[in-house]
Specification:
The protein is built from 11 helices and no strands. The protein has one domain. The radius of gyration is 16 Å and the shape is globular. The chain is mainly alpha-helical. It starts with a helix and ends in an 8-residue tail after the last helix. The chain is 64% helix and 0% strand.
């Protein structure tokens, strides 16, 4: 599935953001984007670091011929900084609608609904940014609905273990 390879640079976001959270780096940027709308956990630091990590990963991966061969042709020929920037933007901005809805429902930042609905919402929450990424990537490459669904499933399968790792290193307060 070449669509899945397009999203590989997004792994740069937790690779950079995890240590920043764990050791509280760049505390001056730890300001909410809008505490009233999205809660205290959606910060400018997270937005900048996640975008930078994804952009950096896209740049590094673009230099790997085996990676580039797996990409859809329009993405392989696109500027990797642009691709990484768009994916990085989607990785945090795509979470904002969910945070907005949770704040309106009275669910505190970092908390979730009670099981079983809470577990289902948490799983869906792992890939809530994929549709925005598909939309932002449209000027470069148009994902089909089937590709978007496949990538969403792949993102959930990768994201859940990353959450557990983040919890283990102290970057998250819950494993899922």
């Amino acid at each position: 599935m070449s669509a899945g390879w397009v999203f590989l640079p997004v792994l740069g976001a937790p690779a950079v953001h995890g240590p920043v959270l764990r050791w509280d780096m760049a505390p001056g940027l730890k300001r909410p984007i809008s505490a009233r709308l999205f809660g205290e956990n959606k910060t400018w630091r997270g937005a900048l670091v996640m975008t930078a990590g994804t952009t950096l990963a896209a740049g590094v991966l673009s230099g790997v011929p085996a990676y580039r061969r797996r990409l859809p042709e329009p993405v392989a020929h696109a500027n990797p900084v642009l691709v990484g920037g768009l994916l990085g933007l989607a990785s945090w901005a795509g979470e904002l609608p969910n945070s907005f809805i949770k704040r309106r429902m009275g669910i505190a930042p970092g908390e979730q609904l009670q099981p079983p609905l809470g577990l289902l919402v948490s799983i869906v929450d792992q890939a809530d940014w994929v549709p925005l990424a598909a939309l932002l990537m449209r000027p470069i490459w148009r994902m089909t609905l089937a590709e978007t669904a496949q990538v969403s499933a792949l993102v959930v399968a990768v994201h859940l273990p990353l959450n557990v790792i983040g919890y283990a290193i102290g970057a998250r307060t819950r494993p899922i």
